[in-house]
Specification:
This protein is mostly helical. It has 9 helices and 2 strands. The chain is rod-shaped, with a radius of gyration of 33 Å. The termini are close together.
Length: 202
């Protein structure tokens, strides 16, 4: 048996590890199209970034706006109750400051008692309209597709390098296991090849 044949399992192991690393790298790199021998190479994520952004945006819009729980939460009277103090403050400022500043003559006819009655009327009307308004707002977003377009633009604007860094930081352990798995497979293939060669040489 030739001594160099013993290097076959080692060579196969290294080859398996390199293949796994190149496979992971090819998800992102090269960032821009590169031509080698007439063949264009570009990372899978880099090349399909716009398509991926569109698919993710569509999924987010579908899950976000078509979920009954989201609709129920936004139209829930409790949601309004949490925002009522701020709304009441704005209505109060409008009636006592902005309205009187714009129409000074109105102060001759509207006193504090009437202003408070108007505020109570506005607040009551708002409580009744809030669920309907929120549902129409969600339907409008869903039908217009503006939200989906904006989400897609935001995702597409993220640099591939940033996505790559995030991927490596999140899946460092999985990538290591993936590389070890390919290395082990390469080692086993090398051993099998060595055994076959030994059997053929006898």
């Amino acid at each position: 048996m030739k001594p160099e044949l013993l290097l076959l399992p080692i060579f196969s192991t290294v080859l398996g590890w390199l293949f796994a690393r190149l496979l992971v790298v090819y998800f992102f790199r090269p960032y821009n199209p590169v031509k080698i021998a007439g063949i264009t190479f570009q990372g899978i994520i880099s090349k399909n970034k716009r398509k991926i952004a569109a698919v993710v945006a569509a999924a987010v819009r579908r899950e976000l706006l078509d979920t009954a729980m989201i609709r129920q939460k936004l139209a829930d009277p409790e949601t309004l109750q949490k925002t009522l103090p701020l709304i009441e403050e704005h209505i109060d400022h409008f009636l006592n400051v902005k309205l009187k500043a714009s129409l000074p003559v109105i102060t001759m006819f509207i006193g504090e008692r009437v202003t408070n009655q108007l505020k109570e009327l506005f607040m009551k009307e708002l409580e009744e309209l809030f669920p309907s308004v929120m549902n129409r707002f969600i339907d409008g977003l869903q039908n217009s597709g503006e939200l989906e377009t904006e989400i897609a633009k935001k995702i597409e604007s993220i640099p591939v390098r940033q996505i790559e860094d995030f991927f490596y930081s999140m899946f460092k352990t999985q990538i290591r296991k993936f590389s070890i798995g390919f290395s082990a497979a390469g080692f086993i293939i090398g051993i099998v090849q060595l055994i076959v060669l030994l059997l053929l040489s006898t």
